[in-house]
Amino acid sequence: MENINKKVWDLAENYQKELSPDVDKAWTEFNKRREVENEGKVVKRNFLLPLGIAASLMLLVGFFFFNSSTQNSMETIHTAANQIEKLGLPDGSEVWLNENTTVSHFAVNGSDRTVELQGEAFFEVEKDENNPFIIKTGGAVIEVLGTAFNVKNVKNGVEVEVRNGIVRVNGNKVKAGEQIFISNSGSIEKNKGSNIGGWINKELNFDKVPLSEIINEIEEIYKVKVAVRNLKLNDCSFTTEFHDESIENILEILKVGFGCELKKINNESFVLKGGSCR
User: Fold this and answer.
1) What is the pLDDT of residues 107-152, one digit of tens each?
2) In which domain, by residue range, is 165 found?
3) Is 198 a member of any domain?
4) What whole-number distance in Å separates Cα of residue 264 and Cα of residue 77?
5) Angle, nearest 10°, between helix axes 211-222 and 247-258?
6) Which residues contact 254 (CB under 8 A, 6 or more apart)?
7) Which of 36, 79, 83, 252 has the most crowded Cβ, counting Cβ within 10 A?
8) What's the rounded Cα separation, in Å, for the pair 167 and 173?
9) Half-sphere exposure of residue 37, counting CA atoms within 13 Å on the CB side?
């Protein structure tokens, strides 16, 4: 029995020795595992960090792009029938839009002086020698530094009349008092300008102008039809001026000047009969 107890004791003593913890060794192993885990976490954070930076940069770029596009966005103005509208542009230039006209320009950025036009408009452009004012209309590109001129986009081409200064239309120089017409086919015709921008306030001056041309301009500005029965009168020259007169008063002056008979059909239709050159 004593021998048995001794063996049990010896085994117990050996068991205790085998289970005795090595604290230093255990602490070293723990630190190694923690370093490995921390290394894994660092790798994970390094993977997400560039994504976060990229996302932030994308948001930042998007913000500046939005800001820029908002500041440089185009504003479009359209006039209805029988409506004349005055428009101030960001660069200080002024535009008078005739009826049924559409103009687009940069709404905020005054340094971009590009305008798109459909219809007819009179421009008074603020002078800037380092930054040309450009109008795109039909098949024409009009470039100016500072001047006053009229632009009319019609079905068969573009007509430009210069009141003062100089403009370039598709590279062609047009001076004050001149008119240039560029057809859709590219042909160019130059003439003398008359009553440039006169449609704005109905300020019309005619100096030895054929009656046919006077009638054409009156019809266009006042939106009426005037029939001249005596075709010989069409080539008769006439000198006169009108300052915001009614169509009835204008036709009355022509009636007296040519000794005609005036008949009013309705508010938009008139007839001149008889008469002769004087």
Assistant:
1) 766 678 999 999 999 999 999 888 999 999 998 999 998 899 999 9
2) 74-192
3) no
4) 36
5) 170
6) 211, 214, 238, 260, 272
7) 79
8) 6
9) 6
